[in-house]
């Protein structure tokens, strides 16, 4: 691992033309409710959705925001209401919105990260905007380079400066999640790169969740001395999110169970000794597990007491409602099943909605002429999340 030196680096005003589509689905148990007004901008001018309720229960409106993307992987919202989106294979960063066009939100290419070497599941992966973006115009990216996966910081339009290198790479299991936690530290999720010994070795960066400063140094308070490792025993973590001050991560299993874990400092999540719930006190059991054919989830987002994870092989969105203590309330709900194909990226927008990206151009899907798409989900009614 090498750590190069530090290098310096709302709202949507008009969403869609009439050509954008919306889908009204029925789901039970969870809801986000209508978004609160944003003091920094006007409410979005959404199209009238086409409603097709399948029965009673709560409702969700899915609206297509953008079309023609290629394997969108990470989403980072900006103060003006637009979002930066990474494309895994092209190495591009594009901005979606806040301006609209006849086809939806305007897609503007920001730049291509030239050091990206895309192959298999590797490429330009996670992205996180600096908490001080309005002042420093800085973002952080996680990407696959020639010899490793790495995290870099950059001012938009400028060459990235790597701040943490040496994360193992392979054709699979590259991790790639990147997000700032409530503590202001930068968290990254890594995969074992096909080497299961990485996950249980606290001195290796593979199969971990990392916690670092914006200079790439181990953050103060980490559980292992002079180490960026926050938790270990992971196989391939991608999505990470916080519900309040509790951290959660979604993880790909091997052949049996995919998981959502509540992540805590220094804890061990069992891979490769355990897949799913193992009952071993040495390891932390997941709060939810699914069979791989109905999950294989990549992205994770949270809004108050609601977790949402976007699934590739399962071609659906799972909603998990949480109790006040962070455990699961009731049964997870499946939405959008096989409606849009493979789902990967997901992020909670400032207005309380979720933005979700399809991944039908990743070599394992069946893309339509509109793919890949970016969707906006709003949940109606009372319950978890915004109401």
UniProtKB/TrEMBL annotation:
Residues 34-54 are annotated as: Disordered. Residues 1-33 form the signal peptide. It comes from the Bacteria. InterPro entries: 6-blade_b-propeller_TolB-like, Glc/Sorbosone_DH, Quinoprot_gluc/sorb_DH_b-prop. Residues 70-364 form the Glucose/Sorbosone dehydrogenase domain. Keywords: Signal. The keyword Chaperone does not apply. Residues 38-47 have a biased composition (Pro residues). This is PQQ-dependent sugar dehydrogenase. It comes from Micromonospora craniellae. The lineage of its organism: Bacteria, Bacillati, Actinomycetota, Actinomycetes, Micromonosporales.
């Amino acid at each position: 691992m090498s750590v190069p030196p530090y290098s310096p680096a709302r709202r949507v005003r008009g969403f869609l033309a009439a050509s954008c589509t919306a889908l009204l689905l029925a789901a039970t148990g969870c809801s986000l409710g209508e978004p609160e007004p944003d003091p920094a901008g006007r409410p979005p001018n959404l199209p009238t959705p086409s409603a097709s309720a399948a029965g009673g229960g709560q409702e969700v409106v899915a609206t297509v925001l953008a079309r023609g993307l290629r394997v969108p992987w990470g989403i980072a919202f900006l103060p003006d209401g637009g979002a930066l989106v990474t494309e895994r294979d092209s190495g591009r960063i594009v901005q979606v919105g806040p301006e609209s066009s006849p086809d939806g939100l305007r897609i503007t290419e920001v730049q291509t990260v030239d050091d990206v070497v895309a192959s298999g599941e590797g490429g330009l992966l996670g992205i996180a905007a600096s908490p001080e973006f309005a002042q420093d115009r800085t973002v952080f990216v996680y990407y696959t380079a020639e010899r490793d996966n790495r995290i870099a910081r950059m001012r938009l339009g400028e060459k990235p400066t790597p701040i943490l290198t040496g994360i193992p790479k392979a054709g699979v299991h590259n991790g790639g999640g990147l997000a700032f936690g409530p503590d202001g530290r930068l968290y990254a999720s890594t995969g074992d790169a096909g080497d299961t010994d990485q996950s249980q070795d606290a001195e290796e960066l593979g199969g971990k969740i990392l916690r670092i400063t914006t200079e790439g140094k181990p953050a103060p308070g980490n559980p292992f001395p002079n180490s960026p490792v926050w938790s270990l025993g992971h196989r391939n973590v991608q999505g990470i999110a916080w519900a309040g001050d509790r951290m959660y991560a979604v993880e790909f299993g091997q052949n049996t169970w995919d998981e959502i874990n509540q992540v805590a400092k220094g804890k061990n999540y069992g891979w490769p000794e355990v897949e799913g719930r193992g009952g071993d006190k040495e390891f932390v059991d997941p709060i939810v597990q699914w069979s791989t054919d109905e999950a294989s989830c990549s992205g994770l987002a949270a809004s108050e007491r609601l977790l949402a994870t976007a699934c590739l092989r399962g071609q659906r969105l799972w909603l998990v409602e949480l109790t006040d203590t962070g455990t699961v309330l009731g049964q997870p709900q499946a939405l959008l099943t096989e409606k849009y194909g493979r789902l990967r990226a997901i992020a909670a927008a400032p207005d309380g909605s979720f933005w979700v990206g399809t991944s039908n151009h990743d070599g394992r899907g069946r893309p339509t002429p509109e793919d890949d798409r970016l969707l906006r989900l709003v949940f109606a009614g009372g319950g978890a999340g915004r109401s």
